[in-house]
Amino acid sequence: MRREEIADLAAFYVVAEQRSFTKAAAKLGISQSTLSQIVKRLEERLGVLLVARTTRSVAPTEAGKRLLATLGPTLRELDQSIEMLAEFRETPAGTIRITSVEHAARTILSPAIAKLLPQYPDLNVEIFIDYSLADVVADNFDAGVRLGSQVAKDMIAVRISPDIAMAIVGSPDYLRLRGAPLEPNELTEHRCINLRLPTSNKLYAWNLKIGGRIVGVSVEGQATYNSIDLILDAALAGVGLGLLPLDQVQAHLDRGVLVSVLDAFVPPLPGYYLYYANRRLNSSAFRVVVDALRYRGEPAAEG
Description:
14 strands
């Protein structure tokens, strides 16, 4: 296969992945018209239509999907082979892409990366915030960060945090109006602020310690968000009770603008883990990121 043909196939792959000629052209650093000509040239050479185009969308045809099924793994393997060449450099280099939930990104990833990057000028790290349980291989990430209980068993997992203390909080005005719950069953009388999970589209059940065991409790309220930052804002505004990481609300508790309730019934969550496929350890750049994130303390005892 000629070099030009390989380049055309790679261009088609980016178009199909981005579902947009505009986004794909920006990613490839070429004009949209040039990219369109490349895909058209590939289609003419193969004798089949690979991409269905409308005024609003771009999607691979059945023939395009069949080509992608073979082409995707081949190009990813080629990318990984090229990344391995960084082993011959004295300094780790390249881009490491990590998918993470926002709390882990803010409290763990960002501080560690801020210390790491000045040591390695040729290292780049991209963090993508997403609550869904990403397939890091299929979605072309180097690694993901999720709670330990959420990591697939076929992934390598490295603990990067202690267990996460949680708190149910509300504003003083809300609690004066509604009263503070003393038992978990009293949550039915309260407006609770829900978190919707994008993977299942279900509402996150609050883990509470009831009768010596952890129970997932469904709560109800008028407000639902897919971001803990927005849940915190809603709790501060007196919308209702929110279940949040303690480190995100401690300053507000200290100032008295939030009050915690049911403390004895709120257990910590399992800590965060970095998870990845075995072959990612081939990259020196990836190894320094893993080492910077690795948790070296003891997991927090369950409260």
